[in-house]
Design goal:
Length: 186
């Protein structure tokens, strides 16, 4: 039996457990009407059912692996990621090349009301530039520890060696062929 996303279960949680109605009363989420929330939930369910769930078996049978310093994903995962990106499911602030709106798009969307309230296009542009600069500053890796209250920031240059050392030291084997565990790219 194929996996079916539990859309109705999530709708129940939103409506009766989480208290989404109270969240919708806030200015920030006033546009998240029941219809909008339901449409997003149903589209997420379709993406899961039609694109992501079918990839799980391929991922189990042919896991991602590291070959000569290059990660080889499971068959279909690249197309799956492309479908996710084309559907707009990547973070809003992600680079447009990878399916996002970029920080500029996220600022335009997130601060649309504040930008529209500016008395002139010049003041609107100045506020926009200021907000984008702040978003980039807050997004810098060196600033992430203080902004998100993270204890440490991993340097991407060193992270591959750390991960490989950890995997090699664990001795943990998984899969039918005794390969190493893999990271699900979704």
């Amino acid at each position: 039996m194929p996996y079916r996303a539990p859309v109705e279960d999530f709708a129940f949680l939103f409506d009766h457990v989480v208290g989404l109605d109270a969240v919708r009363q806030t200015e920030r989420f006033e546009d998240a009407s029941e219809d909008v929330t339901r449409a997003i939930l149903e589209e997420a369910g379709k993406m899961t059912n039609d694109v992501l769930a079918p990839l799980q078996r391929a991922g189990d049978q042919t896991p991602a692996k590291l070959e000569n310093g290059v990660v080889r994903t499971s068959p279909g995962f690249a197309d799956g990621f492309k479908a996710v990106a084309e559907g707009g499911w990547i973070g809003m602030s992600a680079d447009p090349e990878f399916g996002g709106m970029g920080l500029e798009g996220a600022v335009r969307l997130g601060f649309a009301k504040e930008l529209a309230e500016q008395p002139s296009e010049e003041k609107q542009q100045r506020l926009f530039d200021k907000l984008v600069a702040k978003a980039y500053q807050q997004g810098k890796a060196l600033n992430m520890a203080s902004f998100l209250e993270i204890d440490a920031v991993i340097d991407p240059v060193e992270s591959r060696q750390w991960i490989l050392r950890g995997l090699n030291a664990s001795g943990f084997k998984t899969g039918r062929h005794g390969g190493r565990p893999f990271v699900d790219t979704f």
